Amino acid sequence: MIAQGGDSALEATLTAAAFGDQPGRWPLPAATSPDHLWLRAVAAGGQGRYASAYRDLAMLRRAAAPGRWVSLAHSTHGSFLRQLGWHTQARRWDGQALALAGADPEARADALIGLAADALGVGRFSVAQTLLDRAGDVLAAAVVPTHRLAVRRSWVAAELAMAAGDGAAAVCHARAAVELSGAAIGETVSARHRVKSEVVLAAALCCAGATDRARAVGDAALDAAGRLGLVPLGWAVACLLLDIGSATRTTADLRDLREVCAHRVRHAGGVWSAV
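The structure assignment produced for this chain is given below.
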């Protein structure tokens, strides 16, 4: 059984990797508490090290008491499946996360946002909006910090607007995510959240017809993802730039980079959806 307490220096190191200025840090120190296991999994998933992340989440589900951490373990597993294109499979994990969340606002909102993204991924746009609205209600009523979840909700809102062809709304939500991600969580700004927000903004600008601006934002995000070791985000923005072009890289370079990222994900335990 993992202990409930934890060393503050260890927690600071893992927080910096998961939600701070060291998202590429590897290897990560061993966990001594449920929150450490979750932080390790989040950090590893951001780097595309899915096998390591899945192991930590499985250990968390076995070791932690029912409630918040077990719910977050399920919703985080769902988010990794979604990153790899498995939206239908992710829905099962996010649904279980919601069932396990109880009254915990972070766990409930995390599960609802995940379910909204799952619905969006399979074309159920009205369901996605309803779930996002429910998550917004949870966040509005929460008396605990919900900054991380506000960023995530803005990402999904931007993606939903893009799916509906509303470029202006997509850009508005994406810019909100960029602004939110520039604020500190604890003592540091989440570099991973900032890069993901810029990737979403690049896609939103493209949807709004601002292709030149989308290229500039996308090129910068690709540089940042590579510098910070955020392999899945590097793959995602390389895919976007292959569609709209890059001001700094050739098509061949982008294809090579995309394949390198995809190979690294496969080598580290990620299984891409064929769809």
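Interim note for the steering committee: The CA atoms of residues 14 and 39 lie 6 Å apart. The chain has two domains: 31-144, 164-275.
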